[in-house]
Amino acid sequence: MSSTIQIRVDDDLKKKSDRLFKDLGTDTTSAIRIFLTQAVAHNGFPFEIKRTPVNTNLFVTMSEDEILEQLSVAREHSAQGKQREAKSVISDMRSKYGL
Question: For the whole model, what pTM was predicted?
């Protein structure tokens, strides 16, 4: 047996999501089904939900002086041995985000 879910969304959101999912080789209904399947598999949302600023690229809002200060701090950390191998960071990211 299967059930029906009806939702109301803004027309513009529907059009944009239809185009997006078509470009990805599926349709909106299948995408919603995938979302629900993954939510059950993850026992929650299948992605992180948090409040973030619209512009998440921190360097866009930083002045040149702020960037130079951050680079200075990074150099100090490196001199103190406070760095990690890229392979280790990538491995951690793959584990954390299922990549």
Answer: 0.49
**If pLDDT is split at 50, 70 and 90, which confidence band does 57 have?**
low
Buried residues in 56-88 as b, exposed as e (16+ CB within 10 A): eeeeeeeeeeeeeeeeeeeeeeeeeeeeeeeee
Give me the residue label for tokens 């951690």: 92
Tell me if residue 17 falls in helix, strand or coil: helix
- Can you tell me the distance from the alpha carbon of 21 to that of 33, in angstroms, rounded to the nearest whole number? 12
Q: At which residue do the structure tokens 């490196």 appear? A: 78
Residues 46, 38 contacting (CB under 8 angstroms): yes
pLDDT of residue 55: 61
DSSP tag of 54? S
Map residue 10 onto helix, strand or coil. Answer: coil
Contacts made by residues 1-4, CB under 8 angstroms, sequence distance 24+: none
